[in-house]
């Protein structure tokens, strides 16, 4: 019903009420009726006048409400992004960054920035109104995600995904070996992946290193790695134009570059106890190797035992059994060596060092003068590794009188 | 005071002991020639770095040599080390990327062996390859080291540190 229709309806109602009242008591005169109708009419006019003043306001409210409903109900806009950096190379949907020309930069419309590290490869897989899904194919990136209501960002790296609501962090992903490293500078993220199906929360000041091959993951303090002491000038000042996660090499990287002394110095700076008790598996492996290469067998042994104690199910811990046997063997501790070789062969019957462990076991049993056991081990070796490096030796042992 | 004297005496004894061991080691270290690997192959490069460290830890000097022209066998057998090495080791990527070939030319017997080792995708692939290459060197020398004990005919006499590397018991033989 419109407002005007409603007013006419009130007028007709007032006349009808007056006639009805006159029929009921018969005391009112025509003049009184007219005066009464006039009073009712004045009252209705006043009401009509008041209603007409509200009409523009009501109309405006309707328009505003409709506008608000439109704004609320319409599909929200996806965020957009721009790429910059002279080092960026676009290959289809992938953004590659040249290894020697600084970083590339993704600027998103809501303020988030992602620096793509030198030598890295990334792509923006999805854009939503509340964030984006960025895939790191290889290399490193630094993300500065702006926190807003409903913010939802995801960084993918191989089988891992990193869910973000607002934070600053670095990610390194090595496809060879499947190693993920996440370093949190602000906020927190949740990382999911192999053996991390429920997700692991990484908070500010923490570092997660996860290995896709083994499913191992180790959470440690961001400031624990003493690599910062090895390159203090670089870690104290982080230029905006470069991606900082590459300035501090990991212990594994130091080892790969032949800087074994650097690994031991770094472990010393962190503290030997801290390294053995809280160091990541990758760091422990690098530390043990560096100590072994440096000829410090006692230190190497402690590192290898820490691997076995703390990461018992890992392939590295199994390999440590072979290395412990080898070290005992070379030191003349035959019984210890045989025990470790047997441990390795039991834990990793098809492991990378199975042939070497059985071959060394054969030599050790021959050295012990146990002819019967030696022949049994030689036969076992030839059965498994007929063309192995110790095959000729095993045949010679079997031919002995 | 007596404690300080004890520390001083112990330190002096250790200095003399370490010094004499170092001098012996310097004098006795045999050499292994390591053929330079393809630097563009990260696995081989890392494995080469580690193999060099493994050989040092085993008590040998490492002489890096360039690959000799020719096929892989000639490359390792003819690599020039000026006679300073008792063996030459080379790491090559096999045609299939999942394997690496370890070539060892044993100058004591004149034998060359090659083993094709599977290379995993694991992060420790380079370390594994280096250790397996060293173990292959040890095993290939086992035959010559053991020979005097099982045969009466003349056999090449490996240096004592090589015998120690292969099997300490062999080095103790007269």
Features:
heterodimer, A: 401 residues, alpha+beta, 15-stranded mixed β-sheet, 15 strands, 49% helix, B: 174 residues, alpha/beta, 5-stranded mixed β-sheet, 6 helices
How does this structure look, described?
The complex is a heterodimer of chains A (about 400) and B (about 170). With about 400 residues, chain A is α+β, with helices and mostly antiparallel strands. Chain A is built from 14 helices and 15 strands. Chain A has helices at about 5-25, 30-75, 225-230, 230-235, 250-255, 260-270, 270-280, 280-295, 295-310, 315-330, 335-345, 355-370, 370-385, 390-400, and strands at about 80-85, 90, 95, 105-110, 115, 120-130, 130-145, 155, 160-165, 165-175, 180-185, 190-195, 195-205, 205-210, 215-220. Chain A has a 15-stranded mixed β-sheet that branches. In chain A, helix 8 runs antiparallel to helix 9 (about 295-310) and helix 13 crosses helix 14 (about 390-400). The longest helix of chain A has about 45 residues, at about 30-75. The model of chain A is unreliable at about 1-10, about 25-30 and about 225-245 (pLDDT under 50). Chain B is of the alpha/beta class. Helices cover about 50% and strands about 20% of the residues of chain B. Chain B is built from six helices and five strands. In chain B, helix 2 (about 40-55) packs across helix 4 and helix 4 packs across helix 5 (about 160-165). Residues about 10-25 of chain B have low confidence and may be disordered. At the A-B interface, helix 5, helix 8, helix 10, helix 12 and helix 14 of A face helix 2 and helix 4 of B.
Low-confidence stretches of chain B: 10-26
Our count of helices of chain A gives 14
Report mean pLDDT of chain B, rounded to a whole number. 73
> How many DSSP H or I helices of chain B?
6
Mean pLDDT across residues of chain A: 80
Q: Assign the structural class of chain A, choosing from mainly alpha, mainly beta, alpha/beta, alpha+beta, or little secondary structure.
A: alpha+beta
The counted number of beta strands of chain B is 5
Which pair of protein chains has the largest interface, and what are the residue counts?
A: A-B, 40 and 34 residues
Low-confidence stretches of chain A: 1-8, 24-28, 225-247
Order of helices and strands of chain B: HEHEHEEEHHH
The strands making up the biggest β-sheet of chain B line up spatially as 2-1-3-4-5
Shape of chain B: globular
Helix content of chain A: 40-55%
Number of strands of chain A: 15
Taking all Cα atoms into account, the compactness measure Rg of chain A is 40 Å
Helices and strands of chain A, in N-to-C order? Answer: HHEEEEEEEEEEEEEEEHHHHHHHHHHHH
Supply Rg of chain B: 19 Å
The percent range for strand residues of chain B is: 15-25%
Amino- and carboxy-terminal Cα gap of chain A: 119 Å
């Amino acid at each position: 019903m419109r407002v005007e229709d409603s007013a006419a309806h009130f007028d007709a109602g007032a006349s009808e009420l007056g006639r009805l009242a006159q029929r009921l008591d018969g005391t009112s005169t025509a003049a009184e009726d007219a005066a009464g109708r006039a009073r009712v009419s004045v009252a209705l006019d006043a009401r009509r006048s008041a209603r007409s003043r509200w009409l523009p306001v009501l109309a405006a409210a309707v328009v505003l409400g409709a506008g608000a409903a439109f704004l609320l109900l319409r599909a929200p806009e996806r965020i957009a992004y721009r790429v910059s950096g002279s080092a960026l190379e676009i290959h289809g949907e992938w953004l590659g960054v040249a290894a020697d020309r600084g970083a590339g930069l993704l600027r998103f419309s809501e303020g988030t920035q992602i620096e793509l590290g030198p030598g890295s490869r990334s792509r923006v897989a999805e854009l939503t109104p509340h964030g984006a899904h960025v895939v790191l194919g290889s290399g490193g990136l630094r993300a500065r995600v702006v926190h807003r209501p409903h913010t939802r960002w995801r960084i993918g790296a191989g089988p891992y995904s990193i869910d973000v609501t607002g934070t600053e962090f670095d990610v390194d992903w090595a496809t060879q070996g499947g190693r993920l490293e996440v370093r949190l500078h602000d906020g927190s993220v949740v990382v999911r992946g192999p053996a991390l199906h429920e997700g692991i929360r990484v908070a500010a000041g923490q570092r997660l290193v996860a290995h896709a091959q083994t499913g191992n993951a180790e959470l440690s303090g961001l400031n624990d790695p003493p690599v910062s002491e090895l390159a203090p000038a670089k870690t104290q000042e982080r230029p905006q134009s470069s991606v900082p996660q590459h300035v501090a090499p990991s212990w594994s990287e130091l080892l790969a570059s032949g800087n074994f002394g650097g690994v031991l110095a770094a472990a010393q700076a962190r503290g030997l106890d801290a390294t053995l008790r809280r160091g990541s598996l990758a760091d422990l492996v690098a530390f043990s190797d560096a100590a072994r290469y440096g000829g410090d067998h006692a230190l190497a042994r402690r590192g290898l035992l820490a691997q076995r104690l703390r990461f018992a199910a890992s392939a590295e811990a199994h390999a440590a059994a072979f290395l412990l046997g080898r070290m005992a063997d070379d030191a003349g501790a035959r019984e210890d060596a045989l025990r470790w070789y047997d441990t390795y062969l039991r834990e990793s019957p098809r492991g990378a060092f199975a042939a070497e462990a059985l071959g060394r076991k054969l030599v050790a049993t021959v050295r012990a003068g146990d002819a019967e056991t030696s022949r049994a081990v030689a036969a076992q070796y030839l059965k498994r590794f007929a063309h192995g490096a110790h095959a000729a030796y095993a045949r010679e042992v079997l031919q002995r009188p | 005071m007596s404690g300080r004297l004890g520390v001083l005496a112990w330190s002096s004894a250790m200095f003399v002991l370490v010094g004499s061991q170092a001098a012996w080691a310097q004098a006795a270290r045999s050499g292994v020639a390591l053929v330079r690997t393809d630097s563009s192959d990260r696995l081989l490069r890392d494995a080469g770095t580690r193999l060099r460290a493994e050989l040092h830890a085993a008590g040998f000097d490492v002489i890096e040599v360039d690959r000799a022209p020719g096929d892989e066998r000639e490359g390792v057998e003819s690599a020039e080390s000026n006679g300073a090495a008792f063996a030459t080791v080379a790491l090559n990527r096999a045609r299939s990327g999942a394997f690496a070939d370890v070539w060892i030319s044993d100058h004591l017997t004149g034998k060359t062996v090659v083993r094709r080792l599977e290379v995993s995708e694991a992060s420790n692939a380079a370390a594994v390859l280096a250790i397996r290459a060293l173990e292959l060197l040890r095993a290939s020398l086992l035959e010559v080291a053991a020979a005097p004990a099982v045969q009466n005919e003349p056999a090449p006499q490996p240096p004592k540190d090589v015998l120690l590397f292969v099997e300490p018991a062999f080095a103790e033989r007269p």
